[in-house]
Amino acid sequence: MNKRSATSDKRQATGAGFTLLEIVLCVALLVLxxxxxxxxxxxxxxxxKLEEGRVRMETLVRLCRSESCNLGKRIExxxxxxxxxxxxxxxxxxxxxxxxxxxxxxxxxxxxNDLVRVxxxxxxxxxxxxxxxxxxxxxxxxxxxxxxxxxFFPDASSDSAEIELxxxxxxxxxxxxITINGLTGEISSQTFRPLTEEExxxxxxxxxxxxxxxxxxxxxxxxxPPPCPDH
Length: 231
Known about the structure:
Shape: flat
CATH class of the domain at 46-201: Alpha Beta
CATH superfamily of the domain at 46-201: minor pseudopilin epsh domain
Mean pLDDT: 79
Strand order of the largest sheet: 3-2-1-5
Order of helices and strands: HHEEEEHEEEEH
Radius of gyration: 32 Å
Structural class: alpha+beta
Number of helices: 4
Distance between the termini: 131 Å
Largest sheet: 4 strands, antiparallel
CATH topology of the domain at 46-201: minor pseudopilin epsh fold
Low-confidence stretches: none
CATH architecture of the domain at 46-201: 3-Layer(bab) Sandwich
Oligomer: single chain
């Protein structure tokens, strides 16, 4: 009798627990879920960095426009060789025209260099004509992209420009393109995936072939006129 009850108790105790295989499977599942959650959080955090950099860059553009009006002096939103953003002011327009020095205001020191870098800063529209007068001073990045400073004027106007940003710790992620309308002050932005090197080469090849085709078609002899009908 005692043997039977001991065997029954032993079976009940064994059935109430977990086998080693079940424990291993549970641990593996928890590790997998934790890895997925960490991966999603890292991607979300990186995308938030680019978005925050865009918002702070647009705010910086508005502050440059406002400060130029307040000071009655030109202000430049410039970029150094590494793509970091620098705010400069024409401190002495009469004594030292076209000489810009770093602006010491607290907001000017709060450029989003901890979040983004400038890939391209290019003047567009009528503002691009200013580059013709100082073509030798045009600044280029290591990839040959223009890094033109954007100038803000005391009359609340500015250069029209396109500023392309990337995340500071990623060169293969999404980019943001900020477009500035110098006359109206309107700022628009869009996020996009930049072309890979292979896609850039293909685009250049297609463009060259298209130019050659147009050149060949221009040089081709026109077809002879149709014969006049006999009357």
